[in-house]
Every structure is written in structure tokens, then in C-alpha cells.
Amino acid sequence: MIKLREVSVTYRGNLVEALKNVTTVIPGNMVSCIMGPNASGKTTMLKAIAQLVDYKGRIEFDGKDAKEMVKTLRRILSYVSTIDVRGLLGVTVLDLLIYSRYPVSEKFLTTMKDIEESVKTAETLNIKHLLHRKVNELSSGELQRVLLASALVRRPEILLLDEPESHLDMRSKIWLSGFLKSISNDATIVLSTHDPYFASLTCDYLILLSQGRLVFSGPREHLLQNPEVLEEVYNTPFTAVKIGGYEVLISVPLES
Ligand SMILES: Nc1ncnc2c1ncn2[C@@H]1O[C@H](COP(=O)(O)OP(=O)(O)OP(=O)(O)O)[C@@H](O)[C@H]1O
């Protein structure tokens, strides 16, 4: 369980207030989604949880202050954002996966276990054929899978994903949704997304931000029954529809 208590983040001195007094609880061993319009603070919230930005307030992992467990978090937490790796010129996918194991690797040098785990993870995510390709030459969708692999290769207990479904085609999105659900028994997963369909298909728990403030946090069913919460934040109509017996949220004009 991750607890945020009155967490605030500012940038550029105090000029930009990206997160304002956010208090919420993110359940363990589930998939949680952070939603909200552009610039509402989703990435900042993930980065605060990952201890990648300074914040006021308190973040706890299972009751322990995150600021006192930074070393442990390097081992048990993976944070993934597409933007961060675009500059990795010449690095192969296999290099990236092995490098990503560094915090959990047994020795300073690469071990056979690191290589085996990297190949195994690549197999699981159907990217074995990409292992010797250069990261900066991949398509955006290929890169998205590779990044997920780089996060999973160290078997994290906490997995933070910034817009993991972006750039994925529909079939891959559905695959990703099922995959994340299938591993959520063993990991606490928090992702940010712009896609209400993907969020309602994938997440057990939803968090909604608007202009840095928490507007809603609770089980997905609650938001499905009250889509007007989303409508107010996005200023656009949302509705819950049943597809194949599964209820999801979509955003479409209700009347023409
Ligand atoms: N490094 C930074 N320096 C200054 N301002 C920043 C920085 N990072 C984010 N911000 C600002 O903080 C606010 C929240 O940004 P953030 O990236 O967290 O939003 P977001 O909800 O993830 O946005 P998007 O959906 O557009 O990706 C925005 O106003 C943004 O301009």
C-alpha cells in the first residue's frame, strides 16, 4: 500500500504548483490508474512516488517513510517513462535489459543470471527478436514493450508506468491490459493514462487529478457509476458501456 499525505510539488522555485496537497491511499497488489487532463500532475505524482522529485508532505510504502528507504526502493521499485530513454544512442535492447538489472544484480559485473533473466523477460513480452536492435532505432510501439521489459526484468514489487499504452495498437493495448492484470498479484502497479477505455479495462482503482489537485480516488466501479466526475474535469461527456460483458468508460458526444 502506498500512502500520500498532503503531498505538494513545485517547480521553478515555487512558480509552478504541479501537485497540491494530495492525500490518498493506493492499494497494494492491484492496478491503479492516474487520470487527468494535460498538465494535471500525473507524471509529477508518479515521480514523487518514485522519489525522483522533491516534495512536501509524506509518502509511505507499507507504513514506512519513503525518504528513509531510498536504497531499498532502487531495488523494489521500477519507474518507466518513454521520454527518458530516447537519448540512449547505440544501446541495444539486451544492453538495456541487463543494465536495468543493476540494482538487483548479485555482482558488480554482469552475471549469467542477469542475461538469463533478460532473455526470459524478453520472451514473456514477445520482444526476443528485438534483443540485438538499437533502442533508438525502434518504433514507438516496440520501444514501449522494451521499456516495460526493462522495468520487469528486476521483478519489482512496485511498478510505476507513465502512459504505458501510448503508441500501442489496439491489439497490443488489450494484451498490455491483460498482462498487467495478470502480474498484479505480485506487484503494486500504478500507471498514468489519457485513455478512459484503457483505464477502465485495466485498473481496479482510479485516481483523478485536475490542476494538481486530487478530485477522486476509489474503485473503478464507483467511477463507472458516476462518470459525471470525469465529465466535470475534462469538460467533455463520458459514458459507461458494456462490451463483451465488461463495462468500460468511453468519451463520446451523447447527442449530435
Ligand atoms: N521539470 C519541470 N519544470 C517546470 N515545470 C514542470 C516540470 N515538469 C512538469 N512541470 C509542470 O508541472 C505541471 C504538471 O506536469 P505533469 O507532467 O506532471 O502533468 P501531466 O498530467 O503528466 O501532463 P501530460 O498529460 O501533459 O503528460 C505542468 O504545468 C508542467 O508544465
From TrEMBL:
It comes from the Archaea. One of its GO terms (molecular function) is ATP binding. InterPro entries: AAA+_ATPase, ABC_transporter-like_ATP-bd, ABC_transporter-like_CS, Metal_Ion_Import_ABC, P-loop_NTPase. Keywords: ATP-binding, Nucleotide-binding, Transport. Pfam families: ABC_tran (PF00005). Residues 4-236 form the ABC transporter domain. The keyword Nucleotide-binding applies. PANTHER family: METAL TRANSPORT SYSTEM ATP-BINDING PROTEIN TM_0124-RELATED (PTHR42734). This is ABC transporter related protein. It comes from Thermosphaera aggregans (strain DSM 11486 / M11TL).
